[in-house]
Amino acid sequence: MKIINNIVVFDHDKYFLAMLKGYCYANHIAMIEADFNIDGINELEKLKPALIVVPLDLVSTANKSHETGLLRQAGASGDVKICGLNKNSTDIISTGLSAWIDVIINNPFDIGEIDGYVKKTFFLLNTRLTEKRMNGERRSGPDRRSIGINNNGDGGYKETKNPDYPHKSGNPGVKNFQIDQRNKCVLLKGRKIDLTPKEFELIDLLLTDVNRTFMTKEIINHLWPENNRATKSDLYQYMHLLRKKIEKDPNNPQWILTVKGFGYKLNIDNPVEMPQKAI
């Protein structure tokens, strides 16, 4: 089984997307929403998802036969699984669909059915950690991403790290860049930087998968899941404000990098020194 770290969803049902987004966030899975058209399907080559989720009524529509053919071709490689959502359980599933769709979820609004398939088919990051502990595996170096600072009961703090991002020993980014989940702030070289709720939510998302490029639309949907009017301008504004707080030179960012044409990623490999003045 392969690790599932990202999925693409061809759906616009707000209730289903909100439910699936919460599930993905809890299981460290990046969820990317896409339109079921030629451009959206062509993006699969770049995104390389472990799983594609698509409602059956989309692939059953006659005027989407070309898109359906491309999607079927994408799944033929075996590198990606295709999950069909049967939102009308009274529909009869054609043999043609069941021949190339890996699984059909008949109760898509029951997250338990989706969870059961995911756990049976993929390794979740949390599952991988559990198996490593059970097998007595030991890591050769410190972990790549520090995702929290928790009170250890004696008035001090200890780091809580994501065990599934290996990195080279001595990487300064891990010890210098920490996120305090309890107090909703960032610590840079031990210096506390207060953030607004949206700024914290933004940096927290980027920290879920260090050095992965998060698509602009993906970030917007995460920050404003119930607001269809949120635009790139809204994201640019918060990104600018966040960079002003954590970057030495906001116009030449070293921590949060722009990947032109795609989105943003958090870079902890080659950070520069922060200015010594208080923030």
Features:
single chain; 279 residues; alpha/beta; Rossmann fold; Arc Repressor Mutant, subunit A; 2 domains; 12 helices; 22% strand; elongated; disordered C terminus
Nutshell version of this structure?
With 279 residues, the protein is an alpha/beta fold. The protein has twelve helices and 13 strands.
String of helices and strands: EHEHHEHHEHEHHEEHEEEHEHHEE
Question: Unreliable runs, pLDDT <50, ≥5 residues?
Answer: 127-174, 272-279
CATH superfamily of the largest domain: Winged helix-like DNA-binding domain superfamily/Winged helix DNA-binding domain
Figure out the total of helices. 12
User: What characterizes the major β-sheet?
Assistant: 5 strands, parallel
DSSP strand content: 15-25%
Instruction: From the alpha carbons, calculate the radius of gyration and give it in angstroms.
Output: 21 Å
Can you walk me through this structure?
- The protein is an alpha/beta fold and 279 residues long.
- The protein folds into 2 domains: 6-128, Rossmann fold (3-Layer(aba) Sandwich); 143-266, Winged helix-like DNA-binding domain superfamily/Winged helix DNA-binding domain (Arc Repressor Mutant, subunit A, Orthogonal Bundle).
- Helices cover 37% and strands 22% of the residues.
- The chain has helices spanning 14-26, 38-42, 44-47, 56-59, 65-76, 95-98, 111-121, 125-134, 172-176, 197-207, 216-223, 232-246; strands at residues 6-9, 30-33, 51-55, 81-85, 103-105, 143-151, 157-166, 177-180, 185-188, 191-194, 214-215, 256-259, 263-266.
- The strands form 4 sheets. The protein has a 5-stranded parallel sheet.
- The chain is elongated and about 60 Å long.
- Residues 127-174 and 272-279 have low confidence and may be disordered.
